[in-house]
Amino acid sequence: MTGREASGAAPAVIVQVDRDRCIGSGMCAATAPGSLALGADGLARPVREQPTGAAGEPLTSELADAVDFCPVEALSLYGVRDGRRIDPTG
Ligand code: SF4
């Protein structure tokens, strides 16, 4: 058993926060509270710990919006299966 994987239409992703970029605006936590929160240090972190190789969580529209709305591009999503960055693209 490798943990939870995408079971429906949503692909499983790993959320990564670049804490050197994060300015603690809280926008991501407000947009996708099921996936992101502000830690005691005032910076964003994934709600569920996601060490490399973890099963990840479903890519919801809220999570995708949080990545897009971050004012300093501190959020990235990686595919669980292949480790490729899927958002932001390019
Ligand atoms: S939206 Fe970006 S800058 Fe704001 S708390 Fe989230 S990761 Fe940090």
Architecture overview:
With about 90 residues, this protein is α+β, with helices and mostly antiparallel strands. The protein has a single domain, classed as Alpha-Beta Plaits. About 15% of the residues lie in helices and about 25% in strands. The strands form two sheets. The chain has a four-stranded antiparallel beta sheet, covered by helices on one side. A hairpin with a 5-residue loop joins strand 5 and strand 6. The longest helix is centred in the last third of the chain and has 9 residues. The N and C termini lie far apart (about 35 Å). The N terminus is likely disordered. Bound molecules: iron/sulfur cluster. Iron/sulfur cluster binds next to helix 1. It comes from Kitasatospora purpeofusca. Its cofactor is [3Fe-4S] cluster. Keywords: 3Fe-4S, Electron transport, Iron, Iron-sulfur, Metal-binding, Transport. This is Ferredoxin. InterPro entries: 3Fe4S_ferredoxin, 4Fe4S_Fe-S-bd, Fe-S_cluster_ET.
Radius of gyration: 12 Å
Residue-averaged pLDDT, rounded? 85
CA distance, first residue to last residue: 33 Å
What structural class do helix, strand and pairing data support? Answer: alpha+beta
- Summarize the main sheet: 4 strands, antiparallel
Number of helices: 2
Number of strands: 6
Outline type: globular
* Helicity level: 10-25%
Protein name: Ferredoxin
InterPro entries: 3Fe4S_ferredoxin (IPR001080), 4Fe4S_Fe-S-bd (IPR017896), Fe-S_cluster_ET (IPR051269)
Cofactor: [3Fe-4S] cluster
Function: Ferredoxins are iron-sulfur proteins that transfer electrons in a wide variety of metabolic reactions.
